Amino acid sequence: MQFWWVNHKQTYKQEVGNGYIWSPKTLSNGRKNHFYETMRRVLPGDIVFSYASGQIRQVGVITRPAASSPRPVEFGTTGQQWDDNGWMVPVDWQTLPTPFIPKNNLTALTPLLPEKYSPFSAETGRGNQGAYLAGVSEGLGRYVLGTQPGTWGQGFLKLAQGSGDDDGALRILDDAISQTIQDDVALSQTERQAQVLARRGQGKFRTNVEAIETGCRISGITDPRHLTASHIKPWRVCETGTERIDGQNGFLLCPNIDHLFDRGYISFSDEGAVLVAAQVDRTQLALLGCQEGQQVDGRPFTEQQKSYLAYHRANVLLPK
Questions:
Q1: How far is residue 131 CA from its own chain's centroid?
Q2: In this structure, are 141 and 232 located in the same domain?
Q3: Beta-carbon neighbour count of residue 316 at 10 Å?
Q4: Alpha-carbon distance 51 to 123, whole Å?
């Protein structure tokens, strides 16, 4: 479990109200930003404090790793300078019984703040400009939770420790994309159905994948009853309907490998080696039937699959 602090005065209502945090992938000039890159380092069960208007009023539990996502429509005109291509992290927000005001706790907070990439300035008593999501120490996290009445903080920590993996706000986003497809009068009913079913690895997409792939690339399972047609470039960020149902944009994977691949815990090199994110416990990975560096089963990847895998490695695989 790690602790995080998000400064989001501009988008506080939208993010807390809809269960997520969101940032663009880069600055407006295309350069990377440390406080955006941190979005890719959160994991399910991590805790994030919401800082806005001088207070921490909510604390949340991360429910899944970051996923590529368009800028939320509910932002409206807020952040129009931000790139539309961003990261979304689903969060299960809880309201603190007593709002925490960092400015009133500077003596205790100052030694607990990070020396580098701090989200908060002890000198100004405000959030640092441009610091969106920052990692903070366990000591700081426990201090903030410890200011809450009774055993509330302890109860929240138990809640976080028992949390699982859930798409949360991303599921709502996918629902909205599905509705947009269904409302697109430029598409035939058959085309709309094919694209919507592809979201869950069904219909025309699965048929197209099965024409290329014969079994799970890791486990070797070939029984279709135990295989999921999984997108390489995620369905929600496909730029065209063709990409959504392209058989080259998919693998047949057994459920445990599908989970690892979908969440970005593993990916594949063009040569077929298994790549593993730094956050993954290698012992647990082995129990799931996967080893770092092992070669995948089946024939070499096609050039089209390699193109989609390049996207997966850059935008889905969690950082090394």
A1: 19
A2: no
A3: 26
A4: 17
- CATH number of the domain residue 147 falls in: 3.10.590.10
The last residue of a domain, from among 129, 161, 193? 161
* CA dihedral sign of residues 309, 225, 63, 73: positive
Residues 94, 293: contact at Cβ < 8 Å?
Answer: no
Q: Which residues of the chain have pLDDT under 70?
A: none
Domain count, the chain: 2
pLDDT of residue 281: 95
Q: Looking at the DSSP assignment, which residues form a beta bridge with residue 273?
A: 295
For residue 23, what are the β-bridge partners?
87
Compute the distance between CA of residue 319 and CA of residue 40 in angstroms, rounded to an integer.
Answer: 7
Q: Distance (Å, rounded) from C-alpha 288 to C-alpha 275?
A: 15
| CA dist 291 → 148, 226, 239, 286, 309 (Å) | 43, 20, 32, 6, 19
* Tokens, residue 131: 């610091």
Is 174 among the domain residues?
A: no
Classify residue 141 by burial, with Cβ atoms within 10 Å: 0-12, 13-18, 19+. buried
Its domain, for residue 262, covers 184-315
End-to-end CA distance of the chain: 18
Please state the pTM of the whole predicted model. 0.94
